[in-house]
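User: I'm new to structure prediction. If I give you an amino acid sequence, what do you actually give back? Let's try with this one:
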Amino acid sequence: MKKYFIFSFLLISFAVLFLPKHLFAQELNIIPYLKQIENGNKSQVEKDLPELKKSYPNSSNLLFLEGVLTENGQQAVAIYNNLVKNYPNSKYADASLYRIYSYYYALGMYDAAKNFLNRLEHEYPNSPYIGIAKKNIPKQDSTVIARRALPADTSKEVKKEHASQPNENYPFTIQAGAFTVLKNAQALTESFKKDGLYSRIEEKSVAGTIFHVVYVGKFSNEDDAAESLKQINAKYNLNGRVVKLN
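Assistant: Good question. You get back a string of structure tokens that encode the predicted 3D arrangement of the chain. For your 246 residues, that looks like this:
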């Protein structure tokens, strides 16, 4: 009996060594930090983040907090995707899916947004974010991927156009990215303008989250942007896409 007990104990101990580390992750209560961000103390939370990551290296809650602090929407989406993939049982997994949905909806990528909303409904049917996210999403993306490009018109006449008014001669533009912090969107816009490219910022709100969407260039038709898109993506390390002005 004693030998059997020792053998069982060793077997269990051996099995535990090979269990995924995240099963034993020590979770951090991030609610106080989220409240700090909400109260405008984001910079202090950013300062605390490196030390928190050392103390809680496998915390899914901390991963969500890092996503909230990440100002570049595309990078934040990567963090949220990582959380949902590796920590599907996290208390913030549904919130992560909702934030991914919000990002794609803000960019006008309605098919992608709808896919994540469907995942949210299917994987987390009791999530309160489902009710928040419910809205009439268009059946198709409003964006069109171009196949051939012409240089963007950077003349003074084009630059002086009202930002919200589409021009019948230039109905297409490149959507360069979306930021939750205005100064980051402005910095990218200024980089474009220094290189002689027309650029503007449009503010979009999704369920209370404000995104500052950056556009660059104007093109005469949907076959006029692919080459410029490739060059802009490569030069500025972006993942832009061609959109039609509404």
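You can read the tokens as a compact description of the fold. Here is one thing that stands out. The radius of gyration is 23 Å.
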